[in-house]
Design a protein that fits this description.
Structural class: mainly alpha
CATH class of the largest domain: Mainly Alpha
Radius of gyration: 20 Å
CATH topology of the largest domain: Tetracycline Repressor, domain 2
Order of helices and strands: HHHHHHHHHHH
Distance between the termini: 42 Å
Number of helices: 11
Oligomer: single chain
Strand content: under 5%
Length: 256
């Protein structure tokens, strides 16, 4: 391992080195937890000098904040793939189910969100407000799309639905701290049923994917909605993906 500070001018090589640092940090955080991992540990894991890590991130919190942000991007990518594979995944209850599983099946992200609220606050204290704005705009845009296709209940204001949905999703997520990993799929189904019955325009129409019948949304409308949702997710992922060399953490708990 090199012990010096290694400056690299080539952007691709610099990005590759930053990725190696993030990979080492993620592995150590998963195995040992935030409080037991130092910059020295990360440098040793990445096979570089400690000073080289600081060429990419100025503080330990910024480095670990970027590890968190990257985990969020990975979860969003899983959500985007779900929408691309099945247009019905853009329906709110299926969307919630897919995102819940994307988070639940990522042990490091799940740990960041559930085990230590104080830690999460530290990692996001210097969050890029532009990123926060992107996530908020994406959520508003998505709910606007659902409402425009007549897929949300009409006896609540859209902002009320958005707030209540966010609280429901985050409540399910926080309950995972004491839940057995073996029944994650069942809890994802329960979340889907809860969201469908609480916020969609036809709670009496079950959905087989969540254990209750398919709705009657026309296929063409679903395809249009899925394409628009894909665009929103792609814009969000691209906007957040300024690269592993960023100086700062991402926004807080992701509850689109």
């Amino acid at each position: 391992m090199s012990t010096g500070t290694e400056r690299i001018r080539d952007p691709q090589q610099r990005a590759e080195r930053a990725t190696r640092i993030l990979d080492a940090a993620a592995d150590l955080l998963l195995r040992h937890g935030y409080r037991r991992v130092s910059i020295d540990d990360v440098a040793a894991g990445a096979g570089i000098g400690k000073g080289t890590v600081y060429l990419h991130w100025k503080t330990r919190e910024q480095l670990f904040g970027e590890v968190f942000a990257r985990e969020v991007r990975y979860a969003l990518e899983e959500l985007r793939q779900a929408v691309r594979q099945d247009p019905r995944a853009c329906l709110l209850h299926r969307f919630a189910r897919a995102y819940f599983l994307a988070i639940g099946n990522r042990p490091l992200l799940r740990g960041f969100l559930l085990t230590d609220p104080e830690l999460l606050g530290k990692l996001t204290a210097s969050a890029d407000t532009a990123r926060e704005d992107r996530h908020s705009r994406m959520a508003r845009g998505y709910f606007d799309l659902l409402a425009g296709h007549g897929l949300l209940r009409t006896d609540m204001r859209l902002d009320e639905i958005g707030y209540a949905y966010q609280a429901t999703f985050e409540g399910f997520l926080r309950a995972e701290a004491a839940a057995p990993a073996s029944s994650l799929e069942q809890r994802a189904d329960l979340l889907a049923r809860t969201v469908q019955r609480a916020f969609e325009n036809d709670p009496a129409a079950p959905d087989t994917a969540a254990g209750i019948t398919p709705g009657t949304t026309p296929a063409a409308s679903l395809r249009d909605l899925a394409a628009a949702t894909d665009t929103l997710l792609s814009d969000l992922i691209d906007g957040d993906g300024d690269g592993p060399d960023a100086d700062g953490a991402d926004a807080g708990i992701p509850g689109l």
